[in-house]
Amino acid sequence: MLDRIASRLRRWRRRFSRSEWMAQLLGLPTSECPPGDPGLVLIQIDGLAHPQLEQALAKGRMPFLKRLMEKEHYHLEHLYPGVPSTTPAVQAELFFGVRQAVPAFGFMMRESQKLVRMYDPHVAARVEEKLNARCRDPLLAGGGSCYLSLFRAGAARGEAHFCPADQGWGPALRDASPWKVLLLLLTNAWSLVRTAGLVVVEFVLAIVDCVRGVFRGQDLVRELMFIPTRVAVTILMRELCTIGVKIDIARGLPVIYVNLLGYDEQSHRRGPRSAFAHWVLKGIDDAIARIWRAAHGSDRRHYDVWIFSDHGQEQTRPYEREFGRSLGEALADALSDLPGSPEQYPSKGRRGIDLERARLFGSEWIEKMTPDEGGDEHAGDTPLALAALGPLAMLYNLELDGTERAQVAQLIVEQARVPLVLYRTDPADPASAVHGWWAHGPVKLPQDGPALLGANHPFPDETIADMVQLCSHPDAGDFMMYGWCAGMDQPLTFAMENGSHGGAGPNETHAFALMPEDIPPPNPERGHWRPEELRATARAYLRGLNPATARPRRAAVKTLRVMTYNVHSCRGIDGKLSPQRIARVIARYQPDVVALQELDVLRERSGGLDQAERLARLLAMDVHFHPALHLEEERYGDAILTHLPVRLIKKDILPGPPNGKSGLFNPAADEPRGAIWVEVEHEGQKLQIINTHLGLSKAERLRQVDALLGPEWLAHPHCSGPRLLMGDLNALPNSAECKRLGGHLRDAQVAAPDHKPRGTFFSRMPQARIDYIYTSPDFRVERILVPGTELTRQASDHLPLIADIELPTGDGDSPGD
């Protein structure tokens, strides 16, 4: 009854949803699928390193993310983005499973001999064309959408928003009739007012920051250029993307990707540790909260939300500011005696990343005001070129005329003062050895990798391997120049910026993944993710496989964790039928033994699925099921799942109402009730566990309790020693039924130290305590959990009840004695 009321309320709320209205008015297609189908929202916080996120959480700048970790069982994981640590490389690995799709953000395309940047639409399209040739199943294929991505990644035309090669559903908005546009504006008036207010605040802050920057010696033109870019990225793009993602959630798209850029933009300009960069995180945290609530309120799919970053940033010093000249000028001087060396290298990157972002949002007028020395107009004049955008620079097509590569690398380090230079001994042979030069002399990889990265690098082995592999990239330079290596106080960047990424530094290669508790890293011993592993896990989740539910059990040895859970035929209060969601609830808490009630097996109302078998398979547990109700092939009853050695002792029907009295007004009162008894072995001890689900009438429950306490069950000679009785008793703690049980067993919620008993029903407002774990006196209850997360409040009309119980010592005394 209560779940039907909740479902009806959700349907009415959906009718008044602004996102639903916008999708309908714009004529956007919706996904037709069963409401229990999985959906996934991938939220990327661009440029936020794991250490910076920890600092932001500690200082209260991201309260919603902290709430996810404390209340919703998310866990913070390390993520290694690879080298180059750039957005296009990470997105290519996430979307297509291809590592090192590009050697840097700006590089020379060997096929055209032109310097390019990944923000150029034709460049992004060309790279994606190559990726599609290598991968036939991009992550967003099959109905996904993306926001602020460099690649469409399989998303249909019109579903890639604010991306270089697609207009998103902007044409639908332009084609809409004036009255529809007016209605959209009216229904989103508060959002518009809110966004306008944020733009004004951000604009004022940007002006103040601009003045401060000029007083600190920054270039006035660059500071003015940064103001519209900052406002556009920090506020407008964030708000538009948030609104768009909520619309796509209302449409029920299977997978949605959004890239939130604000922090990365501020970090490039002021540094990743700056107050202005961290101030932006508050707005990003609020946007994530709105997306998360929309996802968990969806009626069309069961959405999960994963949050991660693509890379971090290093606090850097611009090379040009440090040495008073650009890298191109320094190289021209250092290599002036080599044949064919020009006075100035055609290059990319002197203007810095801020102008690239400005061009993305249509600020071409800024580009006309700021000449690009050695820019596009020179790119095709000579094959000799320098790509220098960030802490990784690449020198192409330098004519050596017999000069040793080691000598060139030495000149670059000693005269141009570049910290590290790497090269292949034979550029034509991708398998040739990688050598290099740094301040301490020649190096060879991978042998000298630990010395180059230092003892404190978070991912030394992976980083060294990627640095070696990057030298073989078809579009990599002949000489790879890094702005950081071990022993430097602060890395260098070859662009005019104070925060930088793209190289091999310890912060830029240290991203994060904030994941639900039941989705651990694929390799727990290694302890971190790679983008391609996020992709594989996402694909498994979207196919309904979710192998991560079968995660390793808890490390506790002596403590037994038991759970009782009425799963309501795996139908949540949102009306969605989802055994997978129930499995996720169970997996998050890693119980040793699970007592489940109200399971359907081959019933038409639940799609003919064997729910007991399905849950056991998802959780990698053994299962014993007892059908209290058996109608032809359809069955309905209770089960015990465990990963421990288990033996079925008994399963049977309990007595019904006295004198054959049935429920005149409640057909459920006529349901037969049963119990199932198993023996499990844990730490060499045998434990007797009984799971039951009692009837709805008091008289019936009293008869059933007497039966359970009698010689067929708890008083049976074989049911001696440590015993547990778990289940949904449909009775309150002060009832005669519970008092009768309490005369022989202990109520775990009452016995637990420093615990106030909590209700488990109804899950949205759990006031009634009708689910119980009773223990024999020789157990000691250590801890009780009644998790009231968004997932548990939706998955069933009951909350799970979990107890950590210390086993008897085996000497005949209670462990508490």
Automatic annotation (TrEMBL):
Classification via Gene3D superfamilies: Alkaline Phosphatase, subunit A, Endonuclease/exonuclease/phosphatase
Residue ranges of the TM segments: none
Any one Gene Ontology molecular-function term assigned to this protein's record: endonuclease activity
Keyword Hydrolase tagged: yes
Keywords, ordered alphabetically: Endonuclease, Hydrolase, Nuclease
Domain of life: Bacteria
One Pfam entry name: Exo_endo_phos
InterPro entries, alphabetized: Alkaline_phosphatase_core_sf, Endo/exonu/phosph_ase_sf, Endo/exonuclease/phosphatase, GPI-anchor_lipid_remodeler
All copies of domain Endonuclease/exonuclease/phosphatase, residue ranges: 563-798
Name of the featured protein: Endonuclease/exonuclease/phosphatase family protein
